[in-house]
Amino acid sequence: MARYRGDWHGRQYQSWDNLLTLLSVHIVNINSLRELETVLGVNTLKLYHLGIKAHKRSTISDGIRRINYRIHKNLFYKTLERYQRVTAHKRKQFRFKNPLTLMDSTVVNIGLGVVDWGRYAKSKGAIKLHYEYDLERDIPEFITITDKDANDCKIGKCTCRMKPDSIYCFDRGYNDYEWLYSFAQKGAFFVTRLKENADYSILGQQGHLSEAEQKQGLLYDLRIGLKGHVKNHPEGLRLIGYVDGETNIEYQFLTNNVELDAYTVTQIYKARWNIEIFFKWIKQNLKIKTFLGTNTNAILSQIWVAMLYFLCLSFVKYQTKYQNSLFYLHKIIKSTLFYRRSLLEVLSLTHIRQKEVQLSLFDP
Length: 364
Description:
- The chain is of the alpha+beta class.
- 38% of the residues lie in helices and 19% in strands.
- It has a domain of 125 residues.
- It is elongated.
- The termini are far apart.
């Protein structure tokens, strides 16, 4: 915090006040500074246990413009490190021990003129959020924010850390054959779909498909070599053909992992849908499309605090062993935010099934 001078020139409204204020924006679903000022003002007597003060909107506006968004960004990664340590032995979704990371991006449309670096369709502003998503913990573990025209593959090549023995799953938008071959050099693996116009030669069969595997929808498991400017690369790749039993659509999956069985590879790519669910959740429940400020710092601050709040929700759900979804946990916190009640007490009450009594309007 001292590194970015977050508390300089701000005696009444400092970086901690900014964090709590932006958290309340996402929790209560605040749309504007005026609404935020009103909500905090009418609940002034209920804010002492939260550490929030009912600041004027001019003070809040100046704070989110002035306080460096990197303070919230660093806090997100510090919280992420702690969450990863606590959940180090969390049960895996797949049987293999390799960490599984999903890579994808989503475009967030915002109002025209809110940011000068994000034009979209000449009538809207837009930014793009690029994610590395930890499937086992259902949390984002690396985030990059760019303008909406940024190429996914270029961002992925710059940011992907390629941890040894990890598996990275992404769609065809990330396909750069020279980059794909670099995974093997780093000891990492990838799963993606083959481009429709890909030029390759069949080197042989990777494995013989049993009758049971064919009933699962597998068509073939081949070893291939890509042609073109990477044709002289000594390593081949694995191509798996698969037909979805529900939609009857044929898919071709490309990977450099030869240890996993073919059906597991198809299910890894199918699990990529989890990051789409994550995109839908944050857009519907967090304030990342309407912003309290109009400058770049205010927008990035609000986005990073949104990601921090999602991470905290996941952390609370794991620590309390809460069985329902994050959506209901979010609603519980929203409903009890201005009341001095223990969150553990509130969550325990949600598990108590009280006997419902049907009352009649005509009972005396």
